[in-house]
Design goal:
about 260 residues, alpha/beta, Rossmann fold, about 15% strand, binds NADP nicotinamide-adenine-dinucleotide phosphate
Length: about 260
């Protein structure tokens, strides 16, 4: 088992490490000391070891996860010395491998990954670029790894890590819309989330049909499903979702 170090112990480190441990990952995990509260919690409850500084994390790890905010990551890495046999895993959104190379040189292996907070529930579909045997297996402990061989795919796919957060807002709107005297809120919420999970499971298990084709096959003439779907289409309900994705795509391109 390799030793995994985290530089930047914030929300992402917290949910990823919880997910790794809950998924059965029992390798050593080392933490940078900044943000003592979270580091102490991870040390006590999730068998991690807080190091005295960032360089100690690098020196004692085989794989180093850089998990600071984007604005901090290059400056933080510039102060550190890596060995050529190590692998840097960047979970930082919007920072390309070429930008890391500018600070770290050409020798270090660098892999990008985008775990989302469902990692804590062992359900993060983690995008990985480029494919790397250990990194792929690592993120499978807290969900599944989706590896791509092109950084443009990774950048474009990263937009969906934000779409992930919008789903919660949609769940909330649908729960609010259906709860009331005729349906308790907790039952509405369970049904909303269960239906979303069921739809996703079916679409993943039916690769011969697109999700749109599945929708059309359920919402046939005369059904209540079609009544609602037709209204959503007439009202342009899907257009703002396309626009929001485009906005993020433009923002990422400007960061390049
Ligand atoms: N959260 C998500 O849902 C999510 C999803 C996908 C990807 N990401 C990526 O994950 C990264 C971390 O996000 P986050 O949400 O975990 O952010 P966060 O909660 O703000 O955590 C970042 C942590 O890094 C620490 N830090 C800053 N500079 C440091 C340094 N030089 N040495 C050690 N630690 C340092 C910060 O400490 P201070 O607070 O003291 O500055 C903070 O504790 C980001 O780059 C983001 O793009 C996040």
């Amino acid at each position: 088992m390799k030793t995994l170090g985290f530089i930047g112990v914030g929300e992402l480190a917290l949910y990823t490490i919880k997910g790794l441990r809950r998924g059965g990952y029992d390798g050593a995990i080392l933490l940078s000391p900044r943000n003592r509260e979270k580091a102490a919690l991870l040390q006590q409850q999730f068998d991690c070891r807080v190091q005295r500084d960032n360089q100690a994390v690098v020196a004692n790890s085989d794989f180093v996860v850089i998990s600071t905010r984007p604005a901090d990551c290059l400056e933080t890495l510039a102060e550190l010395r890596f060995r050529p046999d190590q692998v840097l895993i960047s979970v930082v959104a919007g920072v390309d491998i070429a930008q890391f190379r500018g600070v770290l040189g050409e020798n270090l292996k660098i892999v990008r990954a985008m775990p989302v907070s469902s990692a804590a529930a062992a359900a993060s579909p983690t995008l990985v670029y480029p494919d790397h045997d250990y990194v792929r297996k690592l993120f499978a402990y807290c969900g599944n790894s989706i590896c791509v061989d092109n950084e443009d795919y990774f950048n474009q796919g990263s937009i969906l890590a934000c779409v992930y957060s919008w789903f919660f807002a949609l769940f909330e709107a649908l729960t609010q819309a259906t709860q009331g005297p005729r349906l308790p809120a907790d039952v509405a919420a369970e049904l909303v989330m269960g239906m979303a999970k069921g739809a996703a499971e079916l679409a993943l298990a039916s690769r011969d049909r697109s999700p749109g084709q599945i929708a059309e096959s359920i919402a046939t003439d005369g059904t209540f499903s079609k009544l609602g779907l037709d209204l959503l289409k007439t009202e342009g309900a899907f257009e703002p979702w396309r626009k929001a994705c485009k906005l993020l795509e433009q923002q990422l391109a400007e960061n390049d």
